[in-house]
Amino acid sequence: MTPTATAAAHSTTAALAVEDVTVRFSGLTALDGVSFTVEPGSVHAVIGPNGAGKSTCFNVLSGVYRATSGHVRLGDTELTGLPPHTIAGLGVARTFQNLALPPHATVADSLLLGRHRLTRSGFLATGLRLPSAAREERRHRERVREIAEFIGLDEELERPAGSLPYGQQKLVELGRALCMEPKVLLLDEPIAGMTADERRRTAAVVADVRDSLGISIVLVEHDMGVVMRLADAVTVLDFGRRIAGGAPAEVQNDPAVVQAYLGAPQ
Most buried residue, 14, 31, 135, 246, by most Cβ within 10 Å? Predict the structure, then answer.
């Protein structure tokens, strides 16, 4: 990472606390009293079989869904019930399972979208190309170059993002989230569909985000090998309930977790 990027790295001091969160849809309970805490600067994996409630949990954390009861707090700041753009403005960025890149935009312009919430120049100043707006744009583009270098895409900045291999397109999405300068990064299946080489590369970038930038990461991922290597702590959901939590090695050997994934022994 460049010295400038290091200087701009975060020193996250706030934990993300999920407290007794319940989500109901027309009588269906998708999350049932779920609690866990993401410690500052850690990777916290949320795992479980299909239908366990992982996506619902992410949608609550990012403001897409409103919890029926319970609380989500970032430090002393209550996030519960806030709209997605407000939560993003408070420092929570998210990637999605499916690619959502502008098809013809360059990598640089795709990353620049992540700087939108940090832009201070008004529409008029930008339209008139006032010096203040031009200076701000130069600063944003310099930060985009730094982040592209951090994720290993600095040689691809002028290429259309949609022309890159799948694994690199997923890295563009990760880079766009980093361009928001988040305190917490929600990664929804970041390595799904990748080749073995792409998985290794992306996992290394995620580890660097934690270790070099100090950003807290909440990770939903089905690749248990990656989860066990990356996660500092794991929360396991099944049918909307938290059935286990702790260090990866503890969780991996928990009988309730084994049963949830493999079914009850014959």
Answer: 31
